[in-house]
Each structure stands twice: as structure tokens, then as C-alpha cells.
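User: Before I run my own analysis I want an independent prediction to cross-check against. Here's the chain; please return only the C-alpha cells and, at the end, one sentence I can use as a sanity check.
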Amino acid sequence: MWRKCSITAILLLFLQISFAQNNFSKVDDWMQNNLRQLGGRATLVIMKDGKIIYNKSENNLSPMQKMAIKYFAKKQGKDPNRALQNFSTTTKAPIASCSKWLSAALVMTFVDEGKLNLNDTVGKFLPVLSQHRKGNITIWECLSHLTAIDAGDLKESREIINESNTMDEAIEKIADQPMEGTPGKVFHYSSIGLQIAAAVIEKISGKDFKTLFKERIAIPCNMKNTDWGNGKIALAAGGAYSTPLDYIYFLQMILQDGNFNGKQILSKESIIKMQQDYTKNAKVTFSPNEAGSMDYGLGEWIMENGNERANVVTSPGLFGSFPWVDNQRKYAGFLFVFNIKNKGRYQLYTNLKSLVDNAIGSN
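Assistant: C-alpha cells:
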């Protein structure tokens, strides 16, 4: 009798595993069919109810992709062979604008503590901006790309910061940039606003941005392999290096209204504020093609609008990585890739999410 029950239990377990795998079979197909367009390597992690329910890595670099990766690595002074490593959940790589979500969350920890208000003006902390008639820009405008500072294209705005030796020098350069409208009314996606916010929290705390991130986000969220590189100052809008596992932990915290493994990292109120639309009526002077027609919250794009807050939020990066949180279906996903080519990327994102939604819905 016991043997029969055991065999039955094993068969049921096998069927359950097979059923779960079948649920994601179309996601598996998507990974394989789009691998070349994704850069030849990709890891996709899906988390729901505090557990990873899907974890898949595909690696098949073409000769041309290998050549491009080696060239990029040499240009940055890195080991080309190491740059060609297969992707997994523990692979560490630059995540570009996925960093914005991390930085905005860090700023919101100061809001939760009452040390900062989203309506505070930056001139209160950074007098050089007031001297250049930019002191009336608010913190929320910094986090939503509504500073109205003409930052040029993405490369130009990054160079302003990357070529600076100190945070103060970066802010002085930002202060010297022209305006292109009224703060709060012009949306220009760039590195400028988040860098100003980073400088503000450094002034408040007396600590550098990298230390603040480690203490307030990385350690509490068990992000053991996430940092901001070896540059003289952190590029708050795009300088983070992370792994799929680390970043899915961060998304778990966002999904759970600021709570990670029983510890409240951010308040639910702050999470909701980050996921509200701040740019709906703003004039757009620059927005990346991969953003489609999405509006913007605080450090993240609104992929699907809701009532009190967005149903779906995301913060894709220049190198192709695509994180998202679905508040309705209660899950988070992170597609980890490294690919400069962005043609058709927005459609790829939406197609992938639709397939994952269907798989989640059938569980």
C-alpha cells in the first residue's frame, strides 16, 4: 500500500513539474528564437511569492558578436576572454539605465526618514545651481527627468559626469548647462536629474553615493554583487554593475511594497509615489526609442497605467536588460543581456512580457 502511494506521489510530482515546464514552453521558445537579436547571451529570471519560478540561460554567441564583445572589452581595458563568459544568474555586467531604479529607491530612503522631501528644491542643498538659476528644480523633477536642463543626447549627459573628478565638479558642469523650458513641464531623458539627486543625498548624509547605496539598498536586499564600478564618482543614472540574481532581489523588494525578507527597506507610500505618472502632460524633447510611448514615474517607466499607481513598471537599459514588476499579477521579471543594438527592442520587451503573463496566469 505504501509503495503504491509512493509511486502515485512520484507520478503526481512529475506531472506537476512537467505542467509547470509546459507553462513556460513559449517563453523557452522566445529565448531561443530571439537569442541572436538579444546579443547571443541571455538570462531570464521570474519571481513570484518570494520564490524564483523560472530561471533560464541561453548562450550561443555568433563569431561577429564575439568580435564585438572583445572590441568593447579591450576599449574599456578589460579581459576580452572573461567578457565572453556564458551568462547565468550570477554573471555580473553593466546594466546601464536599469541603474535609475536603484538610484531612485536610494533617494526615497531619505524621504522615508524625513531628511528629504520630494518638493524640496535643489538649491537648498546645492547653492551652485541657484547661482545658475536652476535652484528651483525639485527633487521629484530630478527623479522624473523634468529638470528642463538641456543635457544633449545620452552620450553627452553621461560625459558631463564621467569626465568629472568629484561630485561637486559634476554639479558645477551641470549647473552651466542651458535650460530648454520650465522645470516640471519638459521631459528630457538623461543622466542629469538623477546625478543632482545623488549629490543632494551626499550633502545630507556626508557619505558618498556608493557607500550609501551599499548600506541602504545592497546589503538589506542581499545584493552581494552589485556596485557602481571603479570610477571617481558614481554615474547614478547608468553606472551600476549587477547580476540577474541580485537585481531580482531588488525587484522582489519593489513588488512587496518595500519589504524584503521581513525588513522594510522602503515604505509602501514611497513605492506608490515612484510608480505614479509624472510626465503625462510634459513636452518631450528626448525619449529613447525602446521606451515606446511610455510615461515616467520616479526612476522608472510606466509600462501599464493603473489607478493609484501603475500596474506595470520597468527600467530598461541601453545594453538591453529589461526588468519589470507587475503589480496586478504579483510577479517580477528580469531579462539580463548585453547588446548595443536596440532596433525592435520595445516590441521584444512587450512580446516577452505577454508570454510570461500567460504562463503566470496558467499557474
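Sanity check: The longest helix spans residues 2-23.
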